[in-house]
C-alpha cells in the first residue's frame, strides 16, 4: 500500500469516527417509551404515555455540554383501562385541561462511568417544579443511541391526587418513571 492509499484510508477512518461522534439532536418517538409503575391497594400497576416530544443536543463524549428538554402530553396516558385513563386526567390528578404537559429541562449531565451519567434537572407537573436527579445510560446502536433511565416521582410533591386521593393508603406516593429514548444525530 503506497503513501497515498494509507493517507486516504486514514482520512476515511477519521471521517467515519467523526460522523459517529455527531451529537444526538432528535428523538424517535416510535422507538422510544415513557412508562410508569406504582402500587394501588398494594397491587402493582403499570402505565405509559403515548405522546411526548424532546429537544436534545447530547454528545456522550462531551456530556457536560449536553442540553435536553422533554414534554409529555398528560392526556395521552394509558393507565391500563379507559376508566383509569379518564380519571387520571381530571382536576384531582393531572388536571390535564389546565396543565396539559409535564416538562423536564436538564440542567446537568455528569459522567459517572463509561456510557453512564447522572442527570439533574427541573420537572414541572401541575404548575409545581421540583429538581430531580437520576442515572442515565447510553447504549450506541450504529449512528443512533438509546438513552435510558428511571427515577422515583413523589406524586404528593406535584399535587397528583388531591382531595380524597391525597393520602397514600390507596395509591402509593412513589411512582417509578422509566424512559428509553432512541436518539439520532442531526441531519
From TrEMBL:
Keywords: Signal
Annotated signal peptide: 1-21
Keyword Metal-binding among UniProt keywords: no
InterPro entries listed in its UniProt record: Lipid/polyisoprenoid-bd_YceI, TTHA0802/YceI-like_sf
Pfam families: YceI
SMART domains: YceI
Keyword hit for Signal: yes
Ranges where the Lipid/polyisoprenoid-binding YceI-like domain occurs: 24-184
Protein name as it appears in the record: YceI family protein
Source species of the chain: Limnohabitans lacus
